[in-house]
Amino acid sequence: MEPWNFQPARDLSLSPGDRVQSLRREVGLVGAASCLAWRWLTRIYLTAAHRLEIHGRENLPSRAPFVLVANHGSHLDALILAAAMPVRQVGRVFPIAAGDTFFTKKATSLFATAFMNALPIWRKKCGAHSLDDLRARLVGDACIYILFPEGTRTRTGEMTRFKSGLGRIVAGTSVPIVPCYLDGAWRALPPNRSMPQAGKITLRIGQPLAFESATNDREGWNAVADATENAVRELSPN
Question: Count of CB atoms within 10 A of residue 198's CB?
Fold first, then answer.
């Protein structure tokens, strides 16, 4: 048995405000408890209001790290993907959320961190260092990311092209990408509506994709994004 190796939390030196917006933020006991409580509440809601069906759970890797990727049409999307994860993984699951949407006001920042355990990505100033930090944490801490490579919610219900940032996070690593397709979430809560309406939602989880041989450069990043986009589209019932 290997001896325990205790290390100080990497966000220990950060102020509360900086900790919320930091990619180094760690999950404490209180955070894990609040995320767990929120997970149970959202599962009850999604079952009652949207008759949520999840197909392909057997395709989820048994161990982290891995990345869940899906089409993006609704603020319900991250809730649904998180609800599909085993409860034992609650402290490892990090939705990657738009900083300019969820981390500019205290109320939404508190919700994103305390209940969703989200990490911010700033779309208008997303430098290479942010993606490299996400890559390092994914591999080093055995995390599970929830990521929407379209970059924003669709306004028409149709999928748009996946951005290459996904490739920058995983290309050349042994971290698998799990493609998923959400059907019904856009109809339940499209971007032009503030409150969801009842309606059936189905989540289809595909087989993991491996990109260990992809080059960690622009060509490799684009190849990862394109292959993942195609895998997600193949899960669509249409």
Answer: 10
Per-residue pLDDT at 34: 85
- Tokens read off for 113: 């961190």
Torsional class of 44: left (φ above 0), alpha (ψ -120 to 50), beta (otherwise): alpha
180 exposed, middle or buried (CB, 10 Å; 0-12, 13-18, 19+)?
buried
- Residues 130-148: pLDDT tens digits? 888 899 999 988 999 999 9
Do residues 99 and 28 touch, judged by C-beta distance below 8 A? Answer: no
Q: Which residue has the tokens 């993991």?
A: 208
**Is 61 within 8 Å of 143 (Cβ atoms)?**
no
Strands 93-98 and 66-70: unpaired
Collect the ranges in the chain with pLDDT lower than 50: 1-2, 4, 6-8
SS3 state of residue 179: strand
For the chain, the distance separating the N- and C-terminal CA atoms, rounded to the nearest angstrom, is 51
Question: Sheet holding 66-70: strands in order across?
Answer: 53-55, 202-205, 177-183, 66-70, 144-147, 93-98, 119-121
Tell me the Cα Rg of the chain.
17
The rounded distance, in Å, linking the Cα atoms of 136 and 134 is: 6
What was the pLDDT predicted at 120? 83
Q: What pLDDT was estimated at residue 58?
A: 96
Question: SS3 of 85, please?
Answer: coil
Give the containing element (helix H, strand E) for 130: helix 128-140
Single out the residue of 108, 110, 102, 66 nearest to residue 84, CA to CA. 66
Question: Which H helix or E strand runs over 35?
Answer: helix 29-50
